[in-house]
TrEMBL record:
This is Acyltransferase. It holds the Pfam family Transferase. Keywords: Transferase. It comes from the Eukaryota. The keyword Transferase applies. InterPro entries: CAT-like_dom_sf, Plant_Fungal_Acyltransferase. One of its GO terms (molecular function) is acyltransferase activity, transferring groups other than amino-acyl groups.
Length: 486
């Protein structure tokens, strides 16, 4: 701690629209590590060293010790005399790691849940939003650990999150070697001006689909923008509880994806795995809405008019998150890694009927895939510049959030396979499993990587309203092409 306090400097980071557009969400993962030593009495990721390496890593990520301040604009204020120190706790589990592994890392097998925060950034016990939360759960008999780490989207995105985790693993591994070699130097930047300077000079008009997401104003949006981040977070956490969610993990092989690819056409374009997975997930969730709307009493017409007036009757929105870094030439050429928010949501408007039929009609599946492929193809530098010109408005994020909250027939899909989550080797090899929280945002799905020893498919996590999840579990198309994990 003394070295950390000595090296950190006071500074202020000005946030921008890209940081706020996803600010309603945390980035939480749990990493499971097995003790590979036969002698379980030998040190395994010892507490002192793990915490010491964490603090050394924090020196490279000083923004994580700052205070979130919103006063007209947003700021992360790092005051060396008044730091917002991360939450870092350890717990002792009464079960062995082997029991958890045998249960395939099912949340229900854990008497102590690693996650310590909800899906939405909200105030801690001290009334502040922590910019990083860590919970180390040590399994019985020194058999392994579960390492939960969370960061809010206010400060970094998934790329920034994984950069911290890789650096922490690297520092810990270096300390494990008694620091005999020189610690590799890494350069990161959190200066939002770097992103702003990378935007194109010529800005085209915003597309119609994006205009619906970013330019629709609501009374709820104005209200949310008026609240402090802490109060807004608390309100959204309680609101998320109103829709009782259920979370499950599924496995999809690449062979299953290839078979679907061979059966559908998409205007002569080759469909990526992400195109097909996004369409599969969207179909499965939309089918749940389709069945519910045809089952009188589950979704009342009055509820629909109040909750989903943003969408036309029978319309469905898939919001697919994408990293804008590769689309910005100046940013992609930077040698210093920019770790601020760089996520945009690509809106894909479809109909519930078409998506519901995609499981039994290759034509419907192909046309739905075409919409996903077109959205990805349209995401270029000019597209990013057009979005940037709009989200610079102080209230834009709050209105988009209001639409996300009040739109029921929607699904957020994010692909997290490129984060390098299994590259986090603390000196004892890659994690055996990196998983999400038991439940997350309502109507949310993420495509997750597999352990490097199994590169034959993808994991798909879904956090859905319970009646939708029941439909997913009974969906013939989904169960034919996927397997249930937990």
């Amino acid at each position: 701690m003394e070295s950390f306090m000595k090296n950190i400097q006071s500074q202020t980071y000005v946030l921008n629209g890209w940081d706020f557009i996803c600010s309603f969400s945390n980035i939480p993962f749990t990493f499971f590590y097995k003790n590979p030593n036969n002698d379980r009495s030998a040190p395994f990721m010892p507490s002192d060293q793990l915490h010491k390496s964490f603090l050394r890593t924090l020196q490279d990520f000083p923004i994580l010790a700052g205070h979130l301040v919103v006063d007209g604009r947003g700021y992360i204020v790092v005051d060396k005399n008044n730091l917002n120190m991360p939450e870092y706790i350890e717990s002792q589990s009464p079960i062995n790691y082997e029991f958890v592994e045998a249960a395939r890392f099912n949340w229900d097998a854990l008497p102590i849940q690693p996650s310590t925060v909800p899906a939405i950034p909200s105030k801690n016990a001290d009334g502040k939003i922590k910019l990083i939360n860590v919970h180390v759960v040590r399994f019985r008999n020194n058999s392994g650990i579960a390492l939960f780490v969370n960061m809010p989207h206010y400060v970094v995105d998934g790329i920034g999150y994984s950069a911290f985790m890789k650096r922490w693993a690297e520092v810990n591994k270096w300390m494990q070697g008694n620091c005999t070699a020189q610690l590799p130097h890494r350069e990161y930047t959190f200066d939002r001006a770097v992103l702003e300077s990378a935007m194109p000079e010529i800005i085209p008009p915003l597309s119609n689909s994006c205009s619906r997401i970013y330019k629709t104003k609501t009374l709820l949006g104005y209200f949310l923008s008026w609240l402090s981040p802490e109060t807004r977070g608390s309100l959204l956490v309680e609101g998320n509880k109103l829709f009782s969610a259920s979370g499950h993990v599924f496995y999809v092989t690449k062979n299953a994806i290839d078979k679907i690819r061979q059966q559908v056409t998409c205007d002569g374009q080759r469909l990526s795995d992400n195109d097909i997975l996004t369409t599969m997930i969207s179909h499965t969730v939309a089918k749940g809405f389709y069945d519910a709307q045809n089952n009188a009493g589950i979704i009342k017409s009055t509820t629909r008019s109040l909750m989903s007036s943003f969408l036309a009757p029978g319309e469905f929105l898939s919001l697919m998150t994408m990293d804008i870094r590769p689309r910005l030439k100046k940013l992609s050429q930077q040698t210093t890694q920019y770790l601020g928010g760089c996520i945009t949501g690509l809106p894909i408007f479809n109909t519930i009927n078409r998506l519901a039929q995609a499981g039994s009609s290759t034509a419907a599946f192909g046309s739905s895939c075409s919409l996903v492929r077109k959205a990805v193809n349209d995401l270029d530098e000019k597209y990013v510049g057009a979005v940037d010109s709009v989200i610079r408005g102080s209230n834009c994020y709050a209105h988009s959030l209001a639409l996300a909250v009040t739109t029921r027939e929607k699904l957020i899909v994010t692909n997290q396979t490129r984060f390098g989550l299994y590259d986090c080797d603390f000196g004892i090899g890659a994690p055996k499993w990196v998983g999400p929280m038991p439940t997350f945002l309502t109507n949310y799905s993420s495509i997750l990587p597999t352990n490097p020893l199994d590169n034959q498919g993808y994991y798909v996590y879904m956090s859905l309203e319970k009646y939708l999840m029941e439909s997913v579990l009974q969906n013939e198309f989904w169960s034919t092409h996927t397997s249930f994990v937990f």
